[in-house]
Predict the 3D structure of the following.
Amino acid sequence: MSVITTNTKTSTLPVMESFYTLQGEGYYQGKAAYFIRLGGCDVGCHWCDVKESWDALKHPQREITDIVEEAAAQPGRLAVITGGEPLMHNLDALTKALHKKGFRTHMETSGSSPLSGSWDWITLSPKKFKAPLPEVCKVASELKVVIFNKSDFAWAEKYAALVSKQCKLYLAPEWDRSAEMTPLIIDYIKEHPEWGLSLQVHKYINVP
């Protein structure tokens, strides 16, 4: 899949951090990936584990050419754009430059801002604090719903009905409540086998 939009381009982006590691979640779990974490988020999840990403002004504006050159220095060719909320920024130029270097472009988003960029894979993780836009739901490659309490299962089904039939469906326990929520998720998936379990494996193996 390649999802393309054509908004005004930008030559710099606020980068909180970038690093080469393994994808810890979802369909591509265990694959080598270069993560580019952008600053800026207007969703404000109280259980967010990267709250320092929220204020884009706290992170340096970096030239897209430099960002991509650093990524290309690594052998892997899977780039994951995350945040914060990456769609707060126009991502057309970044994804174009990554594709030119042979990368697959993946994004992790709440879907709450307008779509930009050219994508090979979109992970939609909807949040109750700011709902995803229908345009993002329609093109999601995988739906990852964080389960914080029992009522979140019904909420997950709400968004499963809005994505395409080809979209992969995952339930993920909120990290601080994983001991309580994971057994409930396992039971739910056994009753609803269209869903899969997504764990934050990177936290278990102690990589970024």
The longest strand covers residues 12-22. The radius of gyration is 16 Å. Residues 4-8 have pLDDT under 50 and may be disordered. The helical segments are 64-72, 92-100, 134-139, 152-160, 178-191, 201-204.
